[in-house]
Task: structure prediction
Amino acid sequence: MRPVDVTPTIAKRLLSTVYSHLKIAAPARFKVNDSVRVSKFKTIFEKEYTPNWTTEIFRIAKVQRTNPVTYLLKDYRKEPIAGGFYEHELLRVSNPDIYLVEKVLRRKNDRVLSNG
Result:
């Protein structure tokens, strides 16, 4: 059919026939407000024993139903993170309230003062 022959009444039917073979995006693995970590980019000379994931915990702000599914993140201050992330770049955090202690500053009996 020529483009000139298309009318508004048959346009929807034509779109469904032309684009019916497109694959719909898979269901999202993460939901809004899930706690996740982001994978780190390692250079060629980076040591293998260094962590592959960030220590900072992010929350999913929005799930974009693109193909493949992408996620928009926000940090703990509720500020948006620039860019979108794919599922394979994110790792769900089971205990988002537990933080890494960087260094123990002082011990007194059973009490510990730390900077983390």
Notes: The chain has a mean pLDDT of 85. The helical segments are 8-18.
